Amino acid sequence: MFSLKTAVLASLTYVGLAVAQANSPYCDAFSNICYQGYYDATYDITIGLILPPLTTGTTPNYTEFLGEIIAPVSYGWTGLSIGGTMAESLLFTVWPYNGQVMFGPRWTSGYVQPLPYAGPVITLLPDSVVNSTHIKASFRCQNCTTWEEGSLGYGDLSAFQLIAYVASDTTPVDDPSSVASNMTEHDIMNFFGMELSEAHTTTTTLYDSYLGPTVAKYGQCGGTSGNFKGPYTCAVGSTCTAIDPPYYYQCV
Ligand code: HEM
Ligand SMILES: *[C@@H]1O[C@H](CO)[C@@H](O)[C@H](O)[C@H]1NC(C)=O
Ligand SMILES: *[C@@H]1O[C@H](CO)[C@@H](O)[C@H](O)[C@H]1NC(C)=O
Ligand SMILES: *[C@@H]1O[C@H](CO)[C@@H](O)[C@H](O)[C@H]1NC(C)=O
Ligand SMILES: *[C@@H]1O[C@H](CO)[C@@H](O)[C@H](O)[C@H]1NC(C)=O
What is the residue range of the signal peptide feature (predicted)? Predict the structure, then answer.
């Protein structure tokens, strides 16, 4: 809805930047997943998102997407807001720890410490990596198109969505070994505009290729614990269940 888009942009002081920076298509060289996203050459941050096909008729629309965040490994932490704001948006934070990708969803009601957020089912995909120059969180996010007080595209998965990303240039989080760690305010902040109508695959093949083998009963099928990268389809007779979201999901 145009009026909503205008209202959101007007509430930010970065209108010019937000309009000038728009999504474009690219394919990740390691995963071969093709995203709509943005590369910020100033801060060396890449954000990509891709959604399943838009459905029509009586089939419900998907409530998930695949995403990636790539940032310099030197940053203390990097954050993504798929609602474009800090408050009342689905946020993600990522930082490296001992070669691991520490990644998880967060939420906050205002300009105060965003805390880990239960609801989204996050699975790190196999191309997530920490190397000598960059950290990459490549992830599947299920139950991620609506959240407390908001939704992707303001409820229309083919609408315009302002996407924001932030980072702490040098200051690490309080406890890098814990994905639930608190942090101090970012000193890098930027935005791009995403036309969600351009960010849908035309087939479900993309998702099928990540389903992999099945997980035996009592095995981990999701969550950020242990740098989990799948597979996440439970064997027949068991269901992927939130044991300690967003960290641990188990086939029970
Ligand atoms: C203790 C931690 C944090 C504090 C104290 C904090 C504080 C703030 C403040 C004061 C602003 C307004 C800055 C301005 O307008 O110049 C802001 C903006 C923003 N913050 Fe944070 N922040 C924190 C963590 C985060 C995290 C973890 C994320 C995302 C993962 C995030 C995302 C944003 C975004 C997207 C904006 C710009 C859009 C908006 O103003 O809503 N922040 N933050
Ligand atoms: C799914 O999204 C498309 C495009 O926005 C819309 O036309 C369709 O009605 C939606 N379907 C449902 C079931 O919400
Ligand atoms: C989906 O996430 C919301 C929070 O955004 C949560 O309240 C809800 O319980 C979750 N639904 C499922 C089925 O996990
Ligand atoms: C490190 O990872 C980034 C992000 O995936 C990639 O672009 C870069 O080529 C990698 N560098 C090395 C030295 O492997
Ligand atoms: C993180 O901050 C919140 C609110 O500021 C606080 O309640 C919580 O105890 C802190 N968590 C840790 C692990 O310090």
Answer: 1-20
pLDDT at 242: 86
Best residue among 185, 191, 194 to mutate for probing ligand 1's pocket (most ligand atoms within 8 Å of CB) is 185
The CA distance from 163 to 15, in Å, is 12
Q: Which CATH architecture has domain 6-198?
A: Sandwich (2.60)
Cβ neighbours for 90, distance < 8 A, ≥ 6 positions apart: 81, 82, 83, 105, 107, 117, 120, 144, 147, 150, 152
Angle at 180 between CA 231 and CA 94, to 5 degrees: 65
- The pLDDT, as a whole number, for residue 56 is 67
Residue ranges of the domains in the chain?
Answer: 6-198, 213-251
- 131 CA from centroid of ligand 4 (Å): 6
Phi, psi of 228 (to 5 degrees): -55, 130
pLDDT in tens, 130-172: 999 999 999 999 999 999 999 999 999 999 999 999 999 999 9
Span from the CA of 183 to the centroid of ligand 5 (angstroms): 9
Q: What is the pTM of this model?
A: 0.83
For ligand 5, whether the C-beta of 182 sits within 6 Å is yes
Q: Which pair of structure tokens corresponds to residue 142?
A: 């299920």
Ligand 3 nearest-atom number relative to CA 90: 5
Measure 70 CA to ligand 4 centroid, in angstroms: 9
